[in-house]
């Protein structure tokens, strides 16, 4: 159990009388591609928000890289290497592609900035940030597009930029919230290929309700049902679990 | 009179004022709740009610008051509906800032119309003879009219509650304030209800105006004197909450009355202190729901755009040329004897710096500071006090102004930056009003007179220039202290601009722009959004303090009017007029505004009206400001797509943000 990157202990979130997430214990290994699935209302999005820091748990803890991050705000979790992508492409649309990525690279600069650098130096005068930006642009296939406004990118390229921003924050682990929601089969495949291409060396946690997709890409799957973990295991184990079939597939598969 | 009956009388006085507030705040709150419109003109509609009644009741004599009580609010309601149809309606879906700006323009228009029809001085508005007599109740005499206000106000409040909760009209309005799209999807023409709601809110304000006008008198300033307390009430009670408006109105009426009698020092302060405490502890107000908590914005702030038919190189050249002109103006003024132009330029430069400071938070950090004159005023007071008591050096005085204002900005920011949107606007307004009211109370600030007779020394430790003794004859003209003062100002303002540009081009500024684009994303990229906003607010407060300090040092005085909320409104107007989100835009806006005001006011009496109308047109048709005109021109079909593309691709990064 030494190689866990993210664990939760008794993670619980209550909204008044509603228990959205109930005593969830996750243990995600470094390098793993984990998926969190479940029917609507299972508590997927609440769990996601508890992990990113958008919500604070009612009870329980979130541990990242051995550190209790339960009460840290989102930006500090990102700085510790816990990145996230957005369901809807949420880029800095009035800025250029390059500036979008550069901002993320700037945030991830390990040594930070001295006050003089932070307030008085030109933002693009930092070689390390610029090189990091170039590397990310290249890896995400946006190298020639740097000077275009994010606003005018085609949908697929926006998606690419979205992933590039996440990559530029230098995450050890990336939380992906239904990255293919609302996409056609073709777009879904392209997006998953991109994630595979760009983020395959990071630990990934995918929140998703498209079962076929999850079965194809995950190392392990956790099934949530009514806020609780119903089942956990490899895609084969989960798909053969009678409880999962009962609750999730709801007889359709049977 | 016994203690008990004295207290009872205070309670009644408090309820009378409270009822007026309830009527005023209810309309304001309903309009906000339903349409997200912060109606600064509500106070003027209130005054309009009083004046309409005054005009109707006068000629009719005895029964005139009763006729006026019915007819005048209806007229105000019609005016309100007209305002909604012609102006407010065009701005639905834009950020609430634009409603603030629009209604600020309407304030100027309505107020100028009132003074041009009815004059500038207050006039008595007699209450009907039937009500003008004391009644003995609870063991003491009290005016029947005042009892009448309390009863009438209660009846009207209950009727409004019934209207909102027991009728189809009210149901649609309440549904619309929850989710306007849903109501539209149900096939209801919500736009018609918006017009009615605006009219209804205006009519309620009209009633309040009549009631208070007859209680005191009618005057053109009655609107501006109630609008800020009315906002306090609406925010205290919770934006959009009718119950909050009622409880808040009565509460504020009582607190004000009791403070006046039992703790005069706190009068004028306590209400704002309360508001600040409530907002810090419960950002949504006492009865607030999610409505208008700033979490949902229909539209983003519209920033000035560069590019268009002017390239960034052209713009830079225009900038150099402008500075060049500013450098040589004093010589021409001296030669031609038109020294007045130098004074005007000094005003423009100071306001340009003030507008620049506001834009750092408004245009770059997306924070609508509605109380920015707090820093301008405090900077002026701090520098005058330094000059009077510590050092005659203008350098020391300005340094103190900047440091004090930056410190206050840090504290205000610490308390209020976590509350977002409209609430941030209101809390900054409350802080500014708190300081405005406070300077009247203290001896060291000179009370209502302010502080006069300050001399400055342009140097340190005795080495430098004393403008009163400075004179260098230079051919046909003389370089005197006035010219030294002008160039010093020019250097400070141009220097501040260059500093601001540096900040914006540094990593710090790039993060502000990221926050402006998407706060959520900036935070998930790893930036502490709140900390960055607070730092921008500190820089902005310091620069605004510098502007105030410069004005005070140049003119040798400071007065409470430096802290008046109208300044905060004007500086927002300048910023948007020029084009926020660019550094030079607000400075251009300041130049145009100050010059227009100066020229118009010397030729026509109704200059406020003209400025108001121009401004309303501007907010509706050119919301991106003067600096965007080249871009707007380039987007005309007249120009081919090549020009458009070039504008979009090449310019924005370099140009749009500094």
Automatic annotation (TrEMBL), chain A:
<keyword id="KW-0029">Amino-acid transport</keyword>
<dbReference type="InterPro" id="IPR003593">
    <property type="entry name" value="AAA+_ATPase"/>
</dbReference>
<dbReference type="InterPro" id="IPR003439">
    <property type="entry name" value="ABC_transporter-like_ATP-bd"/>
</dbReference>
<dbReference type="InterPro" id="IPR017871">
    <property type="entry name" value="ABC_transporter-like_CS"/>
</dbReference>
<keyword id="KW-0547">Nucleotide-binding</keyword>
<dbReference type="GO" id="GO:0006865">
    <property type="term" value="P:amino acid transport"/>
</dbReference>
<protein>
    <recommendedName>
        <fullName>Probable branched-chain amino acid transport ATP-binding protein LivG</fullName>
    </recommendedName>
</protein>
<dbReference type="GO" id="GO:0005524">
    <property type="term" value="F:ATP binding"/>
</dbReference>
<feature type="domain" description="ABC transporter">
    <location>
        <begin position="6"/>
        <end position="251"/>
    </location>
</feature>
<keyword id="KW-0813">Transport</keyword>
<dbReference type="Pfam" id="PF00005">
    <property type="entry name" value="ABC_tran"/>
</dbReference>
<dbReference type="InterPro" id="IPR051120">
    <property type="entry name" value="ABC_AA/LPS_Transport"/>
</dbReference>
<dbReference type="InterPro" id="IPR027417">
    <property type="entry name" value="P-loop_NTPase"/>
</dbReference>
<dbReference type="InterPro" id="IPR032823">
    <property type="entry name" value="BCA_ABC_TP_C"/>
</dbReference>
<dbReference type="GO" id="GO:0005886">
    <property type="term" value="C:plasma membrane"/>
</dbReference>
<dbReference type="GO" id="GO:0016887">
    <property type="term" value="F:ATP hydrolysis activity"/>
</dbReference>
<dbReference type="Pfam" id="PF12399">
    <property type="entry name" value="BCA_ABC_TP_C"/>
</dbReference>
<keyword id="KW-0067">ATP-binding</keyword>
<comment type="similarity">
    <text>Belongs to the ABC transporter superfamily.</text>
</comment>
<comment type="function">
    <text>Probable component of a branched-chain amino-acid transport system.</text>
</comment>
UniProtKB/TrEMBL annotation, chain B:
<keyword id="KW-1003">Cell membrane</keyword>
<feature type="transmembrane region" description="Helical">
    <location>
        <begin position="193"/>
        <end position="215"/>
    </location>
</feature>
<feature type="transmembrane region" description="Helical">
    <location>
        <begin position="422"/>
        <end position="440"/>
    </location>
</feature>
<dbReference type="GO" id="GO:0015658">
    <property type="term" value="F:branched-chain amino acid transmembrane transporter activity"/>
</dbReference>
<feature type="transmembrane region" description="Helical">
    <location>
        <begin position="144"/>
        <end position="164"/>
    </location>
</feature>
<feature type="transmembrane region" description="Helical">
    <location>
        <begin position="227"/>
        <end position="255"/>
    </location>
</feature>
<feature type="transmembrane region" description="Helical">
    <location>
        <begin position="571"/>
        <end position="595"/>
    </location>
</feature>
<feature type="transmembrane region" description="Helical">
    <location>
        <begin position="262"/>
        <end position="281"/>
    </location>
</feature>
<keyword id="KW-0812">Transmembrane</keyword>
<feature type="transmembrane region" description="Helical">
    <location>
        <begin position="483"/>
        <end position="500"/>
    </location>
</feature>
<feature type="transmembrane region" description="Helical">
    <location>
        <begin position="50"/>
        <end position="76"/>
    </location>
</feature>
<feature type="transmembrane region" description="Helical">
    <location>
        <begin position="348"/>
        <end position="367"/>
    </location>
</feature>
<keyword id="KW-1133">Transmembrane helix</keyword>
<feature type="transmembrane region" description="Helical">
    <location>
        <begin position="607"/>
        <end position="627"/>
    </location>
</feature>
<dbReference type="Pfam" id="PF02653">
    <property type="entry name" value="BPD_transp_2"/>
</dbReference>
<feature type="transmembrane region" description="Helical">
    <location>
        <begin position="318"/>
        <end position="336"/>
    </location>
</feature>
<feature type="transmembrane region" description="Helical">
    <location>
        <begin position="536"/>
        <end position="559"/>
    </location>
</feature>
<dbReference type="InterPro" id="IPR043428">
    <property type="entry name" value="LivM-like"/>
</dbReference>
<dbReference type="GO" id="GO:0005886">
    <property type="term" value="C:plasma membrane"/>
</dbReference>
<feature type="transmembrane region" description="Helical">
    <location>
        <begin position="97"/>
        <end position="118"/>
    </location>
</feature>
<protein>
    <submittedName>
        <fullName>Branched-chain amino acid ABC transporter permease</fullName>
    </submittedName>
</protein>
<feature type="transmembrane region" description="Helical">
    <location>
        <begin position="387"/>
        <end position="410"/>
    </location>
</feature>
